[in-house]
Amino acid sequence: MAESSPFSLQGKVVVQFGGTGLLGRALVDALGAAGATLVIASRNRAAIEAGLTAGRRQHAEQVDITHEASVAALRDRVVAAHGRIDGLVFNAVSRPMRNERDTVAAWEESMRVNATGLFLTLRTFADAMAAQPAGGSIVNIASIQGMVGANPWLYEGTAMGTVPDYFFHKGGMLNLTRHYASLYGPKKVRVNVVSPGGIYNPEKPQAAPFLERYGRMTMLGRMAEAREIGGAVVFLLSDAASYVTGVNLPVDGGYTAK
């Protein structure tokens, strides 16, 4: 029998939070293609079930990450059904703020999901992995907007713009990742983050001036396609990354290196 690749997720049980958006669907495809038994968790279970791929080991679960009891119940269901949790991908995000002058209530709602929800999920699932002899791997999905400041020039003459909560919680995700990597490393739990650059959306194409300017900001001259983010996530979940933890891996076409 041929030896399995260290880059494979065959035989691994992975929980992905957020699987219905453009990037979420692409990550589901990448993890499934790598052989993972994938549990896709969201507040909208029906939307997940509608996108499941026949012939792959994919399961839909409902969860509210702002409630600790809901997150803990999901953990218990996964362990009961599959015996363990090898990996976690945190791709859940809420975008209630629409502009720089939006309400404090919108900011607070964003933090409830994107800060408190992240914290509850990481702590709950890292504890479960730490109790396993083999540990586990957590990959958080951040953004280069957690690494750099806003660039208003990109949006001039368009209806697009930036919002402060996104920069705040993606920047916070980077250091919370390092915190848990340090805390859980001795228990064989690796915690890393992938920071995608801008992703082209064929369903709702970005404005032409923005696309041209954004391309000039990268080394590859274009935005990413959603499918191009999954390889980094699969790598960090796999045994090929067994000595990688506390890392922020930009997948941005060279935007932050230029």
Structure description:
The chain is of the alpha/beta class and 258 residues long. The protein has a single domain (13-257), classed as Rossmann fold. Helices cover 38% and strands 15% of the residues. The chain has 7 helices and 7 strands. The protein has helices at residues 22-33, 45-50, 68-82, 104-130, 164-184, 208-217, 230-237; strands at residues 13-17, 37-42, 58-62, 87-90, 136-141, 189-196, 248-251. It has a 7-stranded parallel beta sheet with strand order 3-2-1-4-5-6-7, sandwiched between helices. Helix 1 (22-33) crosses helix 7 and helix 3 runs parallel beside helix 4. The mean pLDDT is 95.
Oligomer: single chain
Q: Note the beta-strand portion.
A: 5-15%
**Which radius of gyration do the C-alpha atoms yield?**
18 Å
The largest sheet has its strands arranged as: 3-2-1-4-5-6-7
Query: How many strands appear in the DSSP assignment?
Result: 7
Taken together, the total number of domains comes to: 1
Give the ordered list of helices and strands: EHEHEHEHEHEHHE
CATH architecture: 3-Layer(aba) Sandwich
Given the structure, what is the number of helices? 7
Instruction: Give start-end ranges of low-pLDDT stretches.
Output: none
What is the CATH third-level topology name?
Rossmann fold
End-to-end distance: 45 Å
Mean pLDDT: 95
State the major sheet: 7 strands, parallel
Which percent range fits the helix content?
A: 25-40%
Shape: globular
Sheet/helix structural class: alpha/beta
CATH class: Alpha Beta
* Fourth-level CATH superfamily: NAD(P)-binding Rossmann-like Domain
